[in-house]
Amino acid sequence: MKPAEYLDAAKTALALKTDYELAKSVGITTAEVSQTKHEKRLMPQPLIEAVAKALKLEFGYVYLDLKRQRKSRANTLKVSTTAPKGAPAQEKDKQGICIMSNVRWAIMQIASFVRSTFSADPMRYGFAGL
Length: 130
Known about the structure:
The protein folds into 2 domains: 3-74, lambda repressor-like DNA-binding domains (434 Repressor (Amino-terminal Domain)), CATH 1.10.260.40; 77-130, no CATH class. The model is unreliable at 77-81 (pLDDT under 50). The protein is 58% helix and 0% strand.
């Protein structure tokens, strides 16, 4: 089951009508329920426990099912067809996909920041080899 299906089934089992009621009964925010429902975040542990109890399932079963789904979604590669904002102009391959992905660009930006920060006074931070 997807997170939204788990949440809807739990609401039905607990005789709740809204996500607000579910969030209040579990002790989390409605934003957490909404983000979980739309798969923007992992389901918080208290919510997994409440769902498992409501559906009479083992906590581990629900947790592992959600984790498996998350892992399979993470393996689906999403490639941007445009360069990130502020990134240098990039060459595109035959399909028009940017050669440098957003993630790679972000890592390069972080590395550049770290290098510039620590190279100003490397001994202060204990990094003499930068």
